[in-house]
Structure formats: structure tokens, C-alpha cells
Amino acid sequence: MKFKHNKKRNTAFLFEALIKELTKATVKNNQAKKQKISQLIKEFFSKDAILGKELHLYKQISETYSIREKDAEKLLEEVKRVYWSLDSQNIFNAQSNLVSKANKEVSAQMFTNFVPNYKNLASIAQIFNKKISPKERVLLERSVAKRMTFLPAEQKKEELALTGTEMKIFAKKFNSSYGDLYKEQKELLSRFVSSFQDNGLELKIFLNEEIGRLKIEMKNAKALEDVNKDPEMLNKAQKVLEILNNFKGQIIDEALLTKILKLQNLAREIKDNG
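^ thats the sequence. predicted structure below, dont judge the formating
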């Protein structure tokens, strides 16, 4: 079922789009932008802020897994009841304020960020909308409730089932955002984008090889005279090795990707500086 949906009036999407921008700023080591985004998140999404309360209700639905469909339906009813007790005008005003600040302080392109579970977030937003028809509400609630019965892996698989056109757009945005990275970082991002189509097989193979390479780089770094003479640097190098050893078995998401990109950057800097 198709329906019109305004991303800028979807609080969960606004939050996820900000997190995407925060990830980019972190990877690029843009401290000024990172600080601005962090301030916006703190200002608009704290637990006492109206959008923070609204986001919590979105997450009550979007982050619920593996429950019985009957329980999912009950949860939807309770979340709707709480949501409709919020002041809709306050929500609208806060969203408008956030969008205005994000345009000025972050980027107008923020709203084009790809969010894998956007379709589900849009459905939840429509459920919260009192103006949709009874038929639309019943169909949407049935779809969302069914999704809440899925295992996390099943939900993830559904999110990543992108069309070819969506994949091309996503790849273009990624390359544009991270165009100034090292060759190995671009390769990692390229594999990450491709993983949305091949269930992550090539990405897992590449990561296994890349983490092995990074371990060698960090072991070589520990052998450097300058590092050996500096207990703090030696300790940091050891901690990085421990992080690399703990990657095995972790879910490959943007948080993990960001960590590896940072480690790739660190390894390259150590290598280039001899």
C-alpha cells in the first residue's frame, strides 16, 4: 500500500538522519560538525524533550522483535494511546525548529540520507496519524504487528531488500560523502554498499582479510622504537589489537564500520610516518 509521507515530519527519520551525519563527521574527523550535530541530538532528543518522548514511542515498535502477533497488537494499541496524549502542536513546532537548525548547521542534504528501516518508520508514522482511513490503519497495523514477530535477522534482511535503483542512489551518496578516504577505506565502503544485495558474503570475506592486515600493521607498530619508548602509545597499540580481536562474530553495521574506518586511518598514519 502506497501513501504520501513527509520525511521532515517523521521524528524517527530525523533522528536516524542526524546519526548518519554524525557518523560521516566522525569518519572525516570533522570535530566542529560533530559537535554541532551532538548538540542538536542533545537539545531535541533528550528524554524530557517532546521529540525525545516521541522517538521513544517509535522505538517501542521498531525495536521490538520475536513477540506473538497478539501481543504486538496490544503493544500497538498502548503506544498509540500514549502517543495521542502528546501535544501534536508542540511536536510540529519542535520538528520545524530542528529542520531549520539542521539545514543551517548540518546540511540540507541530510534529509536525503538513506535509512534502511525507513519504510517501517513511515508506516509507524502513518499509524500515529489520526487522519488516515480505518482501512489504511487496519492494513498498516497488521503489517507492522507482523514485522514485530520477526527475529532481528529477519527484520534486517527485510530492511536491506533494496531495489536496483535505490542501490545506485545509495552507492552514489556514499561515494560522494566519503570521497577523500584512503583506497582501503573506499574499498571497505564499496563492499558495505554491495552487502545490501549479496547478504554480506563478500563484505565478510573482505573484513576477515582486512582485519588480519590491520593486526599485522599494529603488531609492526608495537615494534617501532618510538612506540616502545612511549608506554602510553604502547598501551594504545595493544588496546587497538584487542579491539581487532573482538570484532569476530559482531553484527556488521555502521557503528562497526566506523570503528574499522578509524583503525584503517590510524594504521595508514603510522605506516606513512614510518
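The chain has a mean pLDDT of 83.
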